[in-house]
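ARCHIVE RECORD
Type: protein–small molecule complex
Small molecule: 3-hydroxypyruvic acid
Source of inputs: curated submission
Record status: active
Notes field left blank by submitter.
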Amino acid sequence: MKTNHVRAKLKRGEPSVGTWLTLPDPIAARLMAQAGFDWLTVELEHAPVNLETAAISFAVIEAGGAVPLARVPWNTGENIKRVLDTGAWGIVVPMVNSRAEAEAAVAAARYAPRGQRTIGGQLHAASFHTDAATYYQRANDEILVVIMIEHVKAVEAADAILSVSGIDAFFIGPNDLHHSMGKKPAFDSDDQEYCDALKHVFAVGRKHGLASGIHVLDAAAAQRRIAEGYQFIAIASETGMMLSKARETADFLGLGSGRAAVKY
Ligand code: 3PY
Ligand code: MG
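STRUCTURE (tokenized, with ligand):
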């Protein structure tokens, strides 16, 4: 069975960088898998990606040498089970705001005795180049569980959430976090309440031995976050990268309607 090299990197305290895949297109996923990112997260929360497209995308991402992850649409056992059973090597769970929600995410992602994931499927084992029996035995040690801290309620409950056993990393959703504070959604800001929240969650995560993660807009911001000790860094999305380059090209030639490129 293959080793989840991103999970191993995080456990060693090293940074890993990836991006979000928002296009419902395994061909785009295949090409992105060769760009050199450590991992690629198939976006099922806010993008029009169905499970069949996601399953094929997990396979081509893995074949390209990157770790295939999925952001599930919501924190439910059904969502988590289905992406793991179709070949994701890990999950990113949105909007985890309480200890009970964190426990539910872990229970859905881990087999007994650590959780309640049910037995079944073929693509999970194929994705790790192994047989089902070996997968069931070893999956708990390879599946990456990342929970999102993206609401003030989660910041307040950070200690109760991040002390749940079975979580590998937390991941800040800066847009929802700003929004939950009544502020304009943004990938970053120097707003004091926002910066204090980040510092608090980072310290609590470290206390519980978790890798810290955050979504950023570009490579320079990723470098800054890595220097601060963040280890699970998402840079924008493939759509954001495609459109910002397209926009730059059109602008250079004086073309275009003046509409802003999608950044994420
Ligand atoms: C957010 O910024 O809210 C996100 O969910 C980023 O992934
Ligand atoms: Mg969010």
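CURATOR ANNOTATION: The chain has a mean pLDDT of 96.
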